[in-house]
């Protein structure tokens, strides 16, 4: 859970899908107050980071408006500072109260994303539900103490570390209970679809059986949402990569620009290792995988590492540092998307992620749990 939670701000930052059509108002107006920026500009951004609308910030206040044919979670950018934040836009008039104090820097794909984690949003029904979700699961408390930990001095670090660890351990069952209860009680709710989609990705487990059991409960407006359509597409992908099914073939480039095709590995046991140079848990696990590779390679075991790096330079630097003795390829992202094509094909939502394939090309296990994958490798090659 710890590894998945570390990506939580990015999940919020990059979830830019729309979910239902508004019929009573084609526009929105957002009035805002900012502490920390007296004058500048605010921009609303598209999913590919292009400016849609903008407004001036004068004496810490702004009013930005735009078209609102579909409710959505939008990303906004503040200048100066390039600070970004996400907010729900699903009503004609909404108010933002923003404080840049405590804003943070997150690094994704080798780039710095200054991020304001939380704002106070008034007038959005979706935001109200999401706030209840954070408070009801304990996620709000975890985020609060995580920020405290980052700012902690020597004498208080141990206390906040213990507090954060305790909250993280308590989170999984609280997530499950809150989300499943909310879906059961609000099967027509579009926010319920959105929150379940986020929760399912936070789980880090690609279970088509579980996904089908939940989405079958949705009805009415919820089923007409883009979030529901996205979950259905995800279910189809999961059905295609479930245990016992043939691993989807792909072709990617190696460091030397030569092509690598997965189907050329038939006849050996192969593990697909989805990682990136900027992923700390991925890098930390490399020494362990070197031991596994050394132990089983002569028995017909191979690893194919697929990086999600968008920068070849960062990828090559990491390869020179890690010196992994197996095949390395780089995923490619379709225009306007942030995740790699093969990562999407294998339904990868968090890194690291592993897919073990038998000699016939069928999937043995697909999981972010490296211990479970290592156990399967030992069983197959004993």
Write the layout of secondary structure elements.
Blueprint: H1 2-5, H2 8-14, E1 27-35, E2 39-45, E3 51-58, E4 61-67, E5 72-79, E6 83-89, E7 93-99, E8 104-108, E9 111-115, E10 120-122, H3 125-137, H4 139-151, H5 154-185, H6 190-203, H7 208-215, H8 221-224, H9 226-240, E11 251-254, E12 259-261, E13 269-275, H10 280-296, E14 301-307, H11 312-322, E15 327-330, H12 341-345, E16 353-357, E17 363-367, H13 370-380
Parallel strand pairs: 1-7, 13-14, 14-15
Antiparallel strand pairs: 1-4, 2-3, 2-5, 5-6, 7-10, 8-9, 11-12, 11-15, 13-16, 16-17
Helix pairs in contact: 4-5, 5-6, 7-9
- Total of DSSP H or I helical runs spanning 4+ residues: 13
Top CATH class of the largest domain = Alpha Beta
Listing every helix as H and every strand as E from the N terminus to the C terminus, the arrangement reads HHEEEEEEEEEEHHHHHHHEEEHEHEHEEH
| Number of domain units | 3
- The total of beta strands comes to 17
Taking strands numbered 1, 2, ... along the chain, how are they ordered across the largest sheet? 12-11-15-14-13-16-17
Helix amount: 40-55%
Determine the N-to-C terminus distance. Answer: 30 Å
| Computed structural class | alpha+beta
What name is given to the CATH topology of the largest domain? Glutaredoxin
Computed over alpha carbons, the radius of gyration is 22 Å
């Amino acid at each position: 859970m710890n590894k998945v939670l570390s990506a939580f701000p990015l999940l919020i930052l990059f979830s830019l899908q729309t979910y239902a059509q508004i019929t009573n108002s084609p526009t929105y107006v957002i009035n805002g107050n900012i502490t920390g920026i007296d004058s500048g500009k605010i921009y609303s951004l598209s999913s590919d980071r292009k400016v849609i609308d903008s407004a001036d910030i004068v004496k810490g206040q702004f009013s930005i408006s735009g078209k609102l044919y579909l409710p959505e979670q939008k990303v906004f950018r503040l200048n100066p500072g390039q600070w970004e934040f996400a907010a729900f836009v699903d009503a004609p008039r909404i108010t933002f109260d923003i404080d840049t104090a405590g804003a943070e820097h997150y690094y994704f794909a080798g780039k710095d994303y200054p991020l304001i984690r939380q704002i106070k949003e008034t007038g959005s029904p979706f935001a109200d539900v999401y706030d209840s979700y954070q408070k009801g699961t304990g996620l709000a408390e975890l985020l609060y103490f995580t920020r405290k930990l980052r700012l902690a001095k020597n004498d208080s670090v141990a206390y906040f570390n213990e507090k954060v660890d305790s909250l993280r351990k308590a989170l999984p069952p609280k997530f499950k209970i809150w989300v499943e209860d909310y879906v059961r009680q609000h099967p027509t709710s579009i926010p319920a679809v959105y929150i379940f989609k986020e929760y399912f990705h936070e789980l880090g487990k690609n279970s088509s059986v579980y996904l089908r059991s939940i989405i079958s409960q949705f009805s009415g407006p919820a089923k007409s949402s883009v979030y529901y359509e996205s979950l259905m597409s995800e279910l189809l992908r999961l059905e295609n990569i479930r245990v016992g099914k043939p691993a989807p073939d792909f072709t990617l480039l190696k460091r030397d620009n030569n092509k690598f095709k997965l189907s050329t590995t038939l006849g050996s046991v192969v593990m697909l290792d989805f990682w990136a140079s900027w992923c700390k848990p991925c890098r930390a696990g490399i020494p362990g995988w070197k031991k596994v590779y050394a132990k089983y390679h002569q028995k017909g075991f191979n690893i194919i590492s697929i990086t999600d790096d968008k920068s070849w330079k960062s990828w090559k630097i990491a390869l020179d540092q890690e010196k992994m003795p197996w095949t390395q390829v780089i995923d490619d992202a379709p225009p306007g998307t942030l995740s790699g094509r093969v990562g999407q094909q294998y339904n990868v939502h968090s890194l690291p992620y592993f897919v073990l394939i038998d000699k016939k090309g069928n999937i043995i296990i697909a999981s972010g749990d490296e211990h479970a994958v290592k156990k399967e490798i030992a069983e197959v090659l004993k």
